[in-house]
Amino acid sequence: MRFFCFRLFFLWVLPGLALSAGLEPFLWQELEKTALIDQKIEKQKKSGRPLFYNYYGQAGSFGLPSARKAESGAMQIGCAWLSPFRFFSFSFQYFDPLEIALNYVAFSQWSQSRKLCEERIERQLNLKLAVLEENRFQQAPALALGLVGLMGKKKFRSSYLVATKTFYKQNFELSLGLSSGRMKGLFGSFSYLLVQKEQTALNLVLEFDPSHFTLQKELFKQVSGKKGVRGSLELKLFEILRISGSLWDKKWQALAGLTYNLGESKGFLAKTKDPPLYSKRTNLEPIGPNRPLTLFADELDLALKEQGFQLFSLKKYGQKLVLKIANPCYRSEEEVFERLVYLLAANVPASFEKLILKVESEGLLSHEYHLPLESLNRYRSGQSSFYELGLLAAKRDFQKLKNPIEGEEYFQKRKKVWQVSAYPRLNNYFAGSSKKLQTDLGAALLFDGYLFDQLYYETLLSYIFLASSTAMGKSFGSLPRVRSDLPLYFPAGSLHLEEAFLQKNFSFGRGWFARAGGGFFEAAYGGVSGELMFYPVWSSLALGLDGALLWKRKYSGLGFQGVRAFNNQKEPFLGKQVFLSAYYNLKALALDFKLTLGRFLAKDRGFRIEMGRTFASGVTLAFWYTGTACLGKRFSDRGFSLSLPLDLFLAKSSKTRLNYSLASFLKDAGVRSAGGRPLYPILYYERN
Predict the structure, then answer these.
(1) Sheet strands (E) in 535-590
(2) What is the pLDDT at residue 86?
(3) CA 394, CA 230: separation in Å to the nearest integer?
(4) What is the pLDDT of residues 156-176, one digit of tens each?
(5) What local confidence, expressed as pLDDT, does residue 10 receive?
(6) pLDDT of 260 above 80
(7) Which of 37, 225, 599, 647 is the most exposed place for a label (fewest CB within 10 A)?
(8) Which helix (H) or strand (E) is 627 found in, with range?
(9) Which of 229, 273, 238 is nearest to 257 (CA)?
(10) Beta-bridge mates of residue 252
């Protein structure tokens, strides 16, 4: 009751008295001032302070972390020169509170001794979890927990708790933390924003850093602590480029990096070359003498082609019209359905009871839509919404018609016999005694198409311009060299027929699919393979069984060879791999899981688990771990993969993806050969 009285007095009585006393102009001025302050606060919220990263790839200042974080999906790559070390970092804001960073640390002075080379490379994983976000109204600081050097040799390992508070009026930021490990004790940073414009920001930073890099007996054996104060200037340009310079222990240090929110990006170019939604004249003339089905099919084929689709067949089953189409352009199933509805609503007359759209992708009938013509007419006349039509015609599993012979075919088009595409060829792996990152760079030509409208073929030619090394990876005594000799396949100046295989895909209906293929599946292996999969449309779970018989290819030419055993002698080789796989899509978090159990190529048995997140832009970042055993010995491997939609860099839509993966080391354990085009990615990307 008391609260109600106070509210009544301040909201109604006091303003009424002010108005009666002639204070109306004063009140309006105060309201305008309040509105301007609110606008300024909102502008600060949107712009905020520029975010910088340290040389480990974590959000913070030059050498220390802070509790601040980037937006979900933000990516950064950086390089730092801290004599005598070079730090290369790649980090991703995987979830809103979780930041993941990968480091490659190299010692800048190399020795010819194999032992010293092995000691002078470090690869590590860093994590930071935002526990509490900064609340500028309640004056609460941001709080974060972090780990550095979680994997690898752990020479830089440390854990920390850090709090960060931004003082917006005074234009500075203060971080204070406590750490254990290499960075032991209290640490802190003071950051003052000297300049902040639309495309430029300049930051002055003072850090109290309890850690330092030192050498003992000229070996990278120990990283000890040395407390000190570091001063640095941080410059950010165009919201993307970061450049920092620092003075530490009378030595200059530098850091440069690129930052971009790749996960939430809508593309670097507007999709100006995509056709707009179908808006041409409506043609609803009934099927009859003036508009026979053959003419209607030709009109529909032309309209679908203008929208970026392909019409393969049109058949009539009584009062049902069945269309088989393909979507070679658009990544989003929602966009595909929207474009189809706009087009069909303007062209299909009310001469049938139902319209069935079968969507094909790479020879697989992925799913289908059932559009009742009555519902389409209601949508056309404005009596129902697009959302209602979407519920009635939601995608469902492909089903074979009961009497396919009774259908009358009025249109048929064969798939393309061949098409060609070119792209750069890049191989990265850690191999050799130095454990340095090796790179093979070249160009590739891909020829693919369909033979007899049924058999898919793929031929990949590549030429390697540059190869870092032909040093082989690590081999274990009980395993044959099935993958560690990969660098021998890609010497500089070599031309390869990497792939040349045939594949037949099958759609049995009700969520069952299969494939069979044979030929050269990759540069190192050729043979025969098969796969059976159960993946219903409305299920988040898919199960697959696949296997292959493989022969090892020669390092050049088209022949086959044996494999090198642990005694370095070649032995006859027939590779057998069999896997049972389970896939699960956790849609609430946009996470995909894959668990694989079975026999790998080097006769080791075990598992491989993968976890990947697909962001709104279509970018997928995944991590994997493999654990196997053979002859009583256990092996493990780990790595990550990044998949980018090509249309992020194009002015038109495209389903093509750029895939990159990197393992912790080039090993023979947990290896599986390619066996053609796997089924799950085809179905997953077509349905989502």
Answers:
(1) 541-553, 560-561, 563-564, 570-571, 575-586
(2) 87
(3) 60
(4) 889 999 999 998 888 899 999
(5) 44
(6) yes
(7) 37
(8) strand 620-630
(9) 238
(10) 247
At 474, list the tokens.
């690590």
User: Three-class SS of residue 546?
Assistant: strand
Start-to-end CA distance of the chain, whole Å, equals 55
Cis peptide bond prior to 84, omega within 30° of 0: yes
Tokens 């609430």 map to which residue?
588
* Residues forming a β-bridge with 322: 315, 356
The 8-class DSSP code of residue 185 comes to: E
Buried b / exposed e over 258-279, threshold 16 CB at 10 Å, is ebebbbebeeeeeeeebeeebe
Burial of 364 from C-beta contacts in 10 A (0-12 / 13-18 / 19+)? buried
- In the numeric block, the tokens 């895909």 are attached to 505
Q: Which of 308, 333, 313 is nearest to 323 (CA)?
A: 313
Place of tokens 């790998």: 600
Contacts of 249 (CB under 8 A, 6+ apart): 212, 226, 228
How confident is the model at residue 40, as a pLDDT?
53
Query: Please, are residues 304 and 421 in contact by the beta-carbon 8 Å criterion?
Result: no
Are 35 and 42 in contact by the 8 Å Cβ rule? The answer is no
Cα 325 to chain centroid distance, Å, stands at: 28
Positive or negative, the CA dihedral 43, 47, 50, 56 is positive
Task: Tell me which residue of 306, 301, 396 sits closest to 357, measured CA to CA.
Answer: 396
Sign of the dihedral defined by the CA atoms of residues 205, 208, 209, 214, in that order:
positive
The answer to whether 456 and 438 have CB atoms below 8 angstroms apart is no
| Among candidate residues 314, 282, 285, 287, the one with its CA nearest the CA of residue 298 | 314
Dist. CA 579–CA 573, nearest whole Å? 19
DSSP bridge partners of 529? 517, 548
Q: Is the dihedral of CA 217, 222, 223, 227 positive or negative?
A: negative
* Residue 254 and residue 62 in contact, taking contact as beta carbons nearer than 8 Å: no
Strand 320-326, strand 354-361: pairing: parallel
Average pLDDT over residues 517-524: 96
The predicted pLDDT at position 138 comes to 64
Give the whole-angstrom CA distance, residue 170 versus residue 448.
62
Which tokens go with 303? 């309209």
Contacts of 78 (CB under 8 A, 6+ apart): 53, 55, 57, 87, 88, 89, 242, 255, 256, 257, 258
Rounded Cα–Cα distance for residues 389 and 190 (Å): 58
Angle at 418 between CA 416 and CA 421, to 5 degrees: 115
- The per-residue pLDDT for 212 is 57
User: What residue has token string 């990159």?
Assistant: 660
CA distances (Å), origin 686, targets 279, 322, 331, 419, 614? 25, 19, 7, 20, 14
**Cα 601 to Cα 666: distance, rounded to the nearest angstrom:** 14
Helix (H, G, I), strand (E, B) or coil at 42: helix
Separation CA 384–CA 205 (nearest Å): 60
**How far is Cα 86 from Cα 256, in angstroms, rounded to an integer?**
12
Q: pTM for the full model?
A: 0.87
pLDDT tens-place string over residues 655-665: 999 999 999 88
- Span 360-366, mean pLDDT? 93
Q: What's the rounded Cα separation, in Å, for the pair 567 and 359?
A: 53
Q: Which of 32, 63, 79, 282 is nearest to 182 (CA)?
A: 63
- C-alpha 203/C-alpha 194 separation (Å) is 6
Phi-psi region of 413 (alpha: psi -120 to 50; beta: other; left: phi over 0): beta
CA pair distance 583, 533, nearest whole angstrom? 11
* φ, ψ for residue 34, nearest 5 deg: -60, -40
- Write phi, then psi, for 376 (nearest 5 degrees): -65, -35
Residue indicated by tokens 């099958």: 506
